[in-house]
Amino acid sequence: MARWSAEHPWRAIALWVVFVAVCFVGGNAAGLKEATAQDDAIGEAGRAYVMIEEGGFADEPAVDNVLITARSGKLDNAAAQRAATDATNKLRTVTGVAEVGKPIPANDGSALLVPITMAGDPDDASDRVEPLRSATAEVQQAHPDLRVEQVGGPSINKALDDTLGDDFQRAEILSLPVTLAILILVFGALIAAGVPVLLALSSVAAAMGLSTLASHLIPSTDVTSSVILLIGMAVGVDYSLFYVRREREERAKGRGHVDAVEVAAETSGHAVVVSGTAVVIAMAGLFLAGDSTFSSLAVGSILVVAVAVLGSLTVLPAILAKLGRWVDRPRVPFLWRLSARKSGSFWGRVLYPALRWPAATLIVSVLALLALAAPALNMNLKFPGTEDLPRTTPAMQAYDRLTAAYPSNGTTHMIAVQAPAARAGDVKAALTKLAESTEGNRLFAPPEQTGPDIEVSPDKTVTVLDLATPFTSRSDEAADSLHELRETLAPAALGGLDYAVGGDVANNEDYAKHIWQTLPIVAGVVLLLTFLMMAWTFRSVVVAATSIGLNLLSVGAAYGLLVLVFQGSWAPDLLNFTSMDAIVSWLPLFLFVVLFGLSMDYHVFVVSRIREAVLRGVPTREAVADGITGSAGTVSSAALVMVAVFSIFATLSTIDMKQLGIGLAAAILLDATIIRAVVLPSAMTLLGKANWWAPRFMRPRGRHAAQPAVAPPAPEPELAGRH
């Protein structure tokens, strides 16, 4: 495939451009299908959402509020009433406002709330909230002694969309120049640095379009595009790096452009296909989670990796063959000399302990990684709540004041009951009894003056009660209120009825339980399939088992580091986040498959170089030294790009993106340094010829049947000095 592309470069390039354009345009034309409540239903909380959707409730109109509080001290009720009257009169004239309700005083007299019902589709209310915010700002100017703020779902969503949109835009804008700068440092030439970025960006564009098309089969989620960008930039640049470095190496040996491309395809290209397959296998494990979020992430990741592999076998060889030696132009003088300098002596010194004392080095390094992984045993899983959103916006600061004055506007449990329409009266009475049973219980917010918040579906088959708790959604007290509701209060009041308890707290509990139940299944299948693939690729059961062990060490260390950073108290000020004393629920499972897949990039590339040397008859210890020193520059460069891109995502405002970015960056850094430069060489040196053992039916034949030479290795100091 690579030789055809190299011999017909314009055809290959034109086909690639057409492919990317068709995918991108076709995806945009088809539109995106997003997941529904049925797709996201997990546990009892999911069952409650499904009941509500089956009830056919009319869409609730969007409601925003004007919150009036004192700037300091006690609220002046007369002044607050005047401000509320001004706000009511002004907002009634604003386009898009359907109704302005009567001011509602807080139970403790600390605030006055003016509810505003918005007209139009509630799903896009945040796009139409700006006129309301402007009107409220005018009221604030007229009453400077009070604090008059716009707060509610639409205004908070608008503020967060602006903040997070700016975050992602900054990350996307930064990732490109940072990646390009690292590649210029690596290659010392502008064109060579631009080629991997070009492949990565085109792969991301094609995968975005394909994932949009795929959403009509497997609904998409709002994080899928971010993951495609994250994974696409990482693997796209990695695969190109492996390829371009090998092609330059072969040209330096005197091969012609097409021959150099063909050798690069047979070696690095083969490693790219194997590592890409490993990533696809790992990502496919997410389908076993039975969760629309993971299925969507799996589709996006698989598509972008598959497109990047395809590009590395088609358009990349075509571009390299067409450019020829121009790929090394224009050269950056100092960086060109730096990139051309051999780093064998440095890596020889790094490898010396592993080659000289393999058993001791292996024991010490494995124990160190296990110690780093140990904190993962205390990992807590929770969804981030509203309290974990950045407080840099006035809307979130106002939200905190709203929930302090009106606890029932904060965290709520949602009890859904499904019963024949004839029993609607009995169901409502039972739910009223349930609401009354929480009075005086500190785990639940005081009841509203208007009575329990109960709503009946149009066909009277589903009835919903909202019960508020004054605690944040991920607090221990909120979890206690859920347990008391599920285990005691609801069974006592709703015995014999078909009901389910949902809400944010229930989502936390049920999803964490779902992850802990699913993780072993996904991990087991991914480990088995990866083992079989590696054993067949390298014709060695031992190499496959070693690969699995090393990757598990890497993932475990990344888990432990995440717990140390995000469940500890030392990092929040340093990394600018508010500790939630937990890891985001979906992260461990997603991190496992991503890290397991991406770690294979380096492992396959390094072991392929070692096996090349072994097949030439080089003793295992020298082959390990040759393979690692020969690939160290490429692996280090690829890891540097990945760590830089992932670290940029760790600067985003939301806690889930921070944890994802830091987890990925730390794991790749550990993998490319300690795992590949210390643990791998010491393990393979210690195993010697046993590395290549396999059952008879798996043993290679023909030119792949070469065995490690039995000649004694060179003296250790000479080996280290020579490499």
Task: Please describe what this structure looks like.
InterPro entries: MMPL_dom, Mycobact_MmpL. Residues 59-341, 389-701 form the Membrane transport protein MMPL domain. The chain crosses the membrane at residues 173-191, 224-244, 271-290, 296-321, 357-377, 515-536, 548-566, 586-607, 628-650, 662-688. It comes from Paractinoplanes pyxinae. With 723 residues, the protein is α+β, with helices and mostly antiparallel strands. It contains 24 helices and eleven strands. Helix 9 runs antiparallel to helix 10 and helix 9 runs antiparallel to helix 21. The longest helix is centred in the first third of the chain and has 35 residues, at 153-187. The radius of gyration is 30 Å and the shape is elongated.
The N- to C-terminal Cα distance equals: 34 Å
| Overall pLDDT level | 85
Radius of gyration: 30 Å
Q: Which regions contain 5 or more consecutive residues with pLDDT less than 50?
A: 703-723
The count of β-strands is: 11
Share of residues in strands: 5-15%
What is the count of DSSP helices, taking H or I runs of 4+ residues?
A: 24
- What's the helical proportion of residues? 55-70%
Which structural category do the helix and sheet elements fall into? Answer: alpha+beta
Overall shape: elongated
| Main beta sheet strand tally, sense and closure | 5 strands, antiparallel
How would you summarize what this structure contains?
With 723 residues, this protein is of the alpha+beta class. The protein is built from 24 helices and eleven strands.
